[in-house]
Specification:
single chain; alpha/beta; 8-stranded mixed β-sheet; 3-stranded mixed β-sheet; about 45% helix; elongated
Length: about 375
């Protein structure tokens, strides 16, 4: 009897959370993607500055800088802001600086008390941006931009009238373990926020990706610049929410082959580091952190094992079996949908739903953490030491 009551309560919780997820997926299913624009009629006086915060990026940065060098006059300067690298990153940047005068190396060390290291780098970069720059594009060191990335972004911003947007980058994964884990982590974002392809002012619906974030300079400075997210461990989403709270629409779009990224070296690196920012927990999130985790746990992670368990049980709860069969089928559909986010997919990609349970557990634990270690530095939610 008690087990029947527990299963009924579980089913009702799944049903309520599932309604939210299904509604979200349906409402974002017809989003737009960033269109490839190879040339645009841009104002000669409109300049764009790129800011790349780095820390020990000597192996990742060359592809990013090489890609940026292929971009034409749309980019007026490329500011690489170093937070205290000890692996030759600074020498690498100086060698590229000799090949392209737009590239400049800035030293952002030491990082002050109360600042996330990456945000401090962005803050220093913004302070050194040319006075004539109208736009600021922040990139991570591991991204690989195409020659038409900036032109396509600016054309989109002019066409839509947006002042800020970011991109869902094409993901590069390698190895069976990473192909098994990475998609399960990525899917947590799809379930909680929907499919990329729209702009919104709703703080609860905001999606953002600091790997490629474009914002009009005056819009950024009107919100206090990067200082307004100094203590966030998910600075991209917090900045987007800050801008939305000020009344700005924030766009988030897929960009296909315009930009790609290899975020982590292997599955261990992925497991250790990505869940740090995935909870999207900050001063704006409130109850959304808990409700989002419940959606991951109840609608993404639980249905497959529950469906198999109920299928093998002699005394079946028919409606709960059908509910979890539906959610399992939906998970397979999402798996097919997210496949376009990857440049290549090892065969283990199709088994990634098997990782949903440990991923839900990991994201939940991470949401409750206050201390994180990132490349030897301790990050504290609400500050850095």
């Amino acid at each position: 009897m008690k087990s029947d009551i527990l299963l009924t309560v579980l089913g009702l919780a799944q049903f309520i959370s599932g309604l939210r997820v299904v509604k979200r997926l349906l409402s974002t299913a017809r989003g737009t993607r960033l269109q490839l624009v190879m040339s645009a009629d841009l104002d000669e006086a409109e300049h764009l500055s790129v800011i790349i915060p780095v820390l020990n990026e000597s192996h990742r940065l060359p592809s990013c800088l090489q890609g940026l060098r292929t971009i034409g006059r749309e980019v007026s300067e490329i500011l690489v802001v170093d937070g205290g690298s000890c692996d030759g990153t600074q020498d690498l940047v100086l060698s590229y600086q000799q090949r392209d005068p737009r590239i400049r190396l800035l030293d952002a060390s030491p990082i002050p008390q109360g600042w996330n290291g990456k945000v401090w780098g962005l803050h220093i970069g913004l302070r050194h941006v040319e006075p004539t720059s109208s736009w600021v594009l922040t990139l991570d060191a591991d991204v690989r931009p195409s020659p038409w990335l900036v032109c396509s972004l600016l054309a989109h911003m002019h066409r839509t009238g947006l002042t800020a947007c970011s991109l869902a980058t094409r993901q590069e994964i390698d190895g069976l373990g990473q192909a098994l884990l990475h998609p399960a982590l990525l899917t947590t974002l799809v379930y909680r926020f929907g499919i990329p392809g729209y702009a919104t002012r709703s703080i609860s619906a905001i999606q953002a990706n600091g790997q490629c974030f474009l914002v009009r300079r005056e819009t950024l400075e009107s919100c206090g610049g990067f200082a307004c997210v100094r203590d966030s461990v998910c600075e991209d989403i917090t900045l987007a929410r800050e801008l939305a709270a000020s009344g700005h629409q924030i766009g988030f779009y897929e960009a296909e082959d315009l930009i790609s990224v290899r975020m982590y070296e292997d599955w261990r690196d992925t497991w250790r580091n990505w869940p740090r920012s995935l909870p999207m927990h900050d001063r704006f999130s409130g109850w959304q952190t808990l409700s989002g985790w419940l959606e991951i746990a109840l609608v993404q992670a639980a249905p497959l094992p529950l469906f198999l368990m109920l299928l093998c049980t002699a005394r079946r709860n028919r409606w709960l079996l059908l509910l979890n069969a539906f959610f399992t089928a939906m998970r397979i559909g999402v798996l097919y949908g997210t496949s376009r986010a990857y440049s290549r997919r090892p065969w283990s990609y199709w088994l990634s739903p098997l990782c949903d349970l440990p991923v839900a557990f990991k994201v939940g634990i991470s949401a409750m953490q206050h201390h994180y270690i990132w490349r030897g530095r301790i990050l504290i939610r609400g500050g850095k030491r």
